[in-house]
Design brief:
The protein is an alpha/beta fold. It has 10 helices and 14 strands. Strand 5, helix 2 and strand 6 form a beta-alpha-beta unit. The longest helix is centred in the C-terminal third of the chain and has 16 residues. The protein is globular. The two termini are 14 Å apart.
Length: 317
């Protein structure tokens, strides 16, 4: 396991995508149709891009976030809380057209997501012209991360600005519905993170992910399409991954699940941090799994005490 102190790149990671008000209800018993069900319900701030940005900041990486929030108290609070974690939110956008994006999740008594609803209309106001107006952020960044809540036109603008700035792009496939938006950009990705269903979509019928072996095959397929690093989290079955010279599987850390929201984002952020700081891929994936495990135990989308030291301690525990 890599134990040297990372260099912490002076350049920022530029994160672009969704920020949300998360409302997560964990059922006390399985629900019945047509009646209310006892549950523990908690609100917090989330969103794939926002979560990745906060995790990176807590790991000590400089990070800027471009997102959209409404002209509401929730929007104010979201930006304030994210900034207090160390994220530069000054380039984010306020909209009067929509409320701050919202994610509603229902979680089973065992901690598994039963279903989720999202209202991401606010992010539709992030247009290509907003990206062009913020071209200086690309010039000052070492890497860009995007989630697929962004429109295809905005994604094209982001990849264009990244190419001109000669910086790599990392992406999360985000959901089965949104994953197809990423397909045109696979050959230009430094890192892609996608679960089993999303990966099957990205492979366009060439690989169907059903188990660990097929996940590794699918990760290798994505590498053949030009992706530099492919990461496929498979919940309790661990993570499969591939790069040009290596592929493999690392088992999950056994842990209780308090809240599944944000665990994948912690994994992604840790991988980005590791790539910037030249941590070997095998070690990076192990650290990412540790970050996901810590997040699963916490009642929120980001584990607030996240640090590199905490990740190493968790691996040794």
């Amino acid at each position: 396991m890599y134990l040297e102190e990372p260099s912490f790149s002076d350049k920022r990671v530029l994160v672009i995508g969704a920020s949300t008000l998360d409302i997560v209800g964990r059922l006390s018993v399985m629900p019945e149709t047509g009646t209310s069900t006892p549950a523990k319900i908690r609100p917090t701030f989330g969103g794939v891009a926002r979560n990745v940005a906060e995790n990176l900041a807590r790991l000590g990486q400089k990070v800027s976030l471009i997102t959209v929030v409404g002209e509401t108290n929730f929007g104010d609070q979201l930006l304030q809380e994210t900034a207090s974690a160390g994220v530069d939110v000054s380039a984010s956008i306020r909209t009067e057209e929509f409320r701050t994006s919202t994610y509603l999740a229902v979680v089973t008594p065992s901690g598994q997501l039963q279903f989720g609803l999202d209202d991401m209309r606010a992010l539709s106001t992030l247009k290509p012209e907003h990206i062009k107006e913020r071209a200086n952020l690309f010039k000052d960044a070492s890497m860009v991360f995007v989630d697929m809540n962004l429109s295809p036109a905005t994604l094209r603008s982001i990849f264009s600005q990244a190419r001109m700035a000669k910086i790599p792009v990392c992406a999360d496939a985000t959901s089965k519905k949104l994953a197809p938006r990423l397909i045109p950009f696979l050959s230009r990705l430094k890192l892609v993170t996608a679960n089993s269903d999303e990966t099957s979509i990205l492979c366009e019928g060439n690989c169907q992910v059903t188990n660990r072996q097929t996940a590794i095959q699918a990760a290798r397929y994505l590498i053949s399409k030009g992706v530099e690093y492919a990461l496929i989290p498979m919940a309790e079955f661990g993570v499969c991954y591939a790069a040009s010279e290596i592929s493999g599987h690392i088992p999950a850390i056994r842990t209780s699940i308090l809240d599944p929201t944000g665990a994948g984002d912690a994994l992604t952020a840790t991988l980005i941090f590791a790539l910037i700081n030249e941590i070997p891929l095998d070690d990076a994936v192990q650290l990412g799994i540790a970050a996901a495990s810590l997040t699963l135990r916490y009642p929120g989308a980001v584990f607030p005490k996240l640090s590199l030291e905490k990740l190493y301690d968790h691996l040794l525990f």
